[in-house]
Amino acid sequence: MQWAFFILALFAILAELNTGTFYLAGVALAALLTAFIAIWWSHALWLVVIFAMLCGLLTLVVRLYRPTLRSVKDPTDFDIGQPVTVLTVHPEDNREVTVMYRGATWQAVIQDGSLLPPQSAAVIVGRSDNILHLARQTTPIVQKA
């Protein structure tokens, strides 16, 4: 019976490496502890009960002590501050534009309320999903040779 818990611990660790949630680490540790208990104690039903209790306890511990980054949405958004070129302006709403950024066209919204004509320069000040948030660029774009 202990081999089943060792194999379960191995699969939980491998799955944890792919997900990064830390919850499966609690399950893996519970399976590993249950496997060590199973070496000396071979009551299968009680081993399953011990495993379930350890899973619940260690999952709760992970939930309480896991560092959360909910207050910071995306700390490494490298798009902010990058220049873009306005391609078209939406005819019904002048705040909605289409821009060229990283070789692709993106939908964007002008945040500061200014009107940007086509072929004007703007800078990215934020992003929500696949919508860029723009502001008028105050410094000229320098083309790299």
Which features would summarize this protein structure in a list?
5 strands, five-stranded mixed β-barrel, single chain, OB fold (Dihydrolipoamide Acetyltransferase, E2P)
In short:
This protein has three helices and five strands; from the N terminus they run H-H-H-E-E-E-E-E. It is α+β, with helices and mostly antiparallel strands.
What is the count of helical runs? 3
* Total domain units: 2
Report the structural category. Answer: alpha+beta
Helix fraction, binned, reads 40-55%
Low-confidence runs (pLDDT<50, min 5 residues)? none
What is the overall shape? rod-shaped
Model description:
The protein has 3 helices and 5 strands, in the order H-H-H-E-E-E-E-E. The chain is α+β, with helices and mostly antiparallel strands and 145 residues long. The protein folds into 2 domains: 2-65, no CATH class; 83-136, Nucleic acid-binding proteins (OB fold (Dihydrolipoamide Acetyltransferase, E2P), Beta Barrel), CATH 2.40.50.140. The protein has a 5-stranded mixed β-barrel. Helix 2 runs antiparallel to helix 3 (44-65). The radius of gyration is 27 Å and the shape is rod-shaped.
Note the topology.
Blueprint: H1 2-19, H2 23-40, H3 44-65, E1 83-89, E2 96-101, E3 104-110, E4 121-128, E5 131-136
Parallel strand pairs: 3-5
Antiparallel strand pairs: 1-2, 1-4, 2-3, 4-5
